[in-house]
Hints:
By secondary structure, this protein is an alpha/beta fold. The chain contains 23 helices and 15 strands. A 5-stranded mixed sheet has the order 1-2-3-4-5, with helices on both faces. It has a 5-stranded parallel sheet with strand order 7-6-8-9-10, sandwiched between helices. Helix 21 crosses helix 23.
Amino acid sequence: METADLEKAVRRVLLALNIEPDGFRLDRGFLARAQRTGQARAVAINGVADQFVFMGFRESTDPEVSVEGMAAEALASLGRYARTSCERLVVGWADPRGQVFAAAFVVSPEGENGRLVGSSWTEPEIWPEPMIDASKSGDDTIDDALDRLESIVRNRTDYRGSSFDSEFDRALRLVDMALLHFGGEGQSTAEHPAVDVPDETWSTWLHYFNHSVYDEWKRIGGSVRRALPIPMRPSTDGPLKGLRVFLSYARPDATTLTWPVHEALSSCGATVWFDRTQTTNELQLALGLAEIIASCDVYVMCASDEFFERAGYATQEFAWARQHHESGGNPKHFLVVARPNTILPSAVAAWPTIELRDHDREQLARSLVVHLQHAAPRAVTESPLAPLAAPLLVTALRPLPQQADIPALWRRIQHAQLFDEIDQETLTRLMSRRVDDQHATEVRKKLLHLGDGLEWAGTLEDIGRWPDDPFIRDIRLRFAGARAVVGTRWPLNDDLAWESGVVDDVEYLATQRVPVIDWPAVPGWDDGERRLALRYHAGLLRVLHGLLKRGLWGGLLRVSSSTFRAWEEELYTRQRECYDALLELRLNGRLSWQRDVPTWDALFRTWSELLTRSEVPWREPVPFAVLHLLVANAPYIAGIVAETGWYVSRYGGRASQSFIARGLDAPANFEVYALGPGVIDSEATAGIENSLRLGCMAGTKGSAEIRLSWKGPHFSASSIGGESTGPVPA
């Protein structure tokens, strides 16, 4: 057995714990030391919460029989601190023949090895939670996942009861995992044929799904190594001949919505612009599709929750279509195709709408012809947007104050840290289903004590007294809303009589106007962040709405059914408010469609880690006293760098703030600044005694440099001042 064999077995199971396998390495002498002592040997993987324990050579040749006992022994071998802190455990061993095994466990809340989630001797696809095989290439992973799905569909009549649904769902998740793992987007599969429909219907669905997946795979750099048949070729004649149609959709909806609409239109003779069947060059993408939309007679919106909640490029296409129409040009006709019960925003409520039911292409084609063959041009403005509050329309930001407001900055930092403390993936799982593992237990505890140390009740009860900073309000609304949703499904503390704050918060979410709409823009939080907040809130409302409709309200047993029905109706309005606001941002040109700019918290997180770990590769030596001040004041420096960098990333130019840094015998004046591309630091030679300056300077093509300068006798005994530079890590 070699070290490489052991590393390979461990890497195979790490994805089961959501740990990236490529970074796992053992010290060169690890295996030799373990063999010499003959004792269990532990290594922290990503910190003390993730532990790998090598148990040495064991007599058992059947890993399935010995794995549970091996894990219990491995956990017991850890020191007290490591054992109580361990949340995820990987245990490894070798048998007398030199075969190496590894297994991954989620440690239970009681500190015992809980459920087995992955093993090196079984295929990842059949683990309790299916997982892709990290040892395969991306192309092989996609091909194998699609082959597995097709095999399940082809043999669907062999399954009994609900076993087909569970296996089908596992196969779909594997496809999505592969796309997500390699940087793509999953494909929406909420709608698919019933088990007993004819083979032709399933073949058509598989065709749409394969095309959608491979189109996404090509978009992120993958290759397609198989020919995909076309079940229906476009017609050169038909009732819609000569009609030019633009299809607008969200990428995950290609299978369930857009491919069926495209083929129905094409079969009737229409010329359809659909990006999955078109070749676009870099110039077109740089300029956008506005002119292509203007060349079409019809704009068809394939509407869905994904379309509106993303508020992405598809909503920009909607904005272009309306702008062209309102200026007297094309498109002249507007149409919505949606699944039943899709909530439509006010802007399209009066448009002709076709409900796409089941998988009847012929009925869809007939409906499209009825709506488009003799349709008169429609004035889009007949369906105005719902009125929005004035704060949404304010675009100007106040300039950054010269002196940083440290108390206000610290409150913001505390809330950014709260966001990082609560595992978002586990929180999402808790909102979608009941979960009882250690991660879920920890998240539930945090939800019960959200406001501790923040002068906050942890609920929506005191929303009128929250700080004015919309960044803080955003974090609080997200977590209080999630707390309400999780507490609706099941009581947070498992006491069926407990409803502390949950009822009032659900009532607020259902009956009160969405507050995100009315928050003003401030440095660190503007319409880009408003879009993200509205997206999150719309999704949360959708989940809550689904719980109430399906009767999944074990945490609210004392609420009457009539109240639930009233809340259900109100929740339609709240979701529509989110959609209206998101479209309004697009229509007013308030959101960029060409680039994503960094958020304040992303910048803060990056700089905080960089400064705390002292990982800046300085080109010139930096005095220890200066490095000490950087670490001692890291949260404040990171917060101010985030704010100045955020400002310049949006408005260019120069931004700076100062504060008093402490950590030496005498306080130091610390200026933090950011420069946009091409901007010269006109104050480079300025500086008062006992001062520091830290700047981030944007270069061309996304590059950036850091410059650090210091002046004063407190920093170095050999010189009165100095300067160093370094590249900004990716």
